[in-house]
Task: structure prediction
Amino acid sequence: MTTSRGDIDMEQSQRELHDLCQPLTALRCRLELSKMPGHEDTLKDAIEESLQETVRIFEVVARMRQRLLLLEQAAAQESLRGDLESLTGTEDDDSESRL
Result:
């Protein structure tokens, strides 16, 4: 059984969403802990750790954006290639070698 590009993209998206949920869960826990009565140091620690988790979130989102940009560029190139082939009546060298 072969794996399609769409399957690979879906698996990657699932991994990225999982990676995104981890710091979000940690962030939520840190913020919940900060509400507990206690020492001022506990609150400061929770805020600092929460800020660190937001860095992780932004890193995951940046990776997701980069991957989506690459997918969009690949789709645009494929579309242009198809348009060019339609206009010229020729096919890509790869498709000719498959004949």
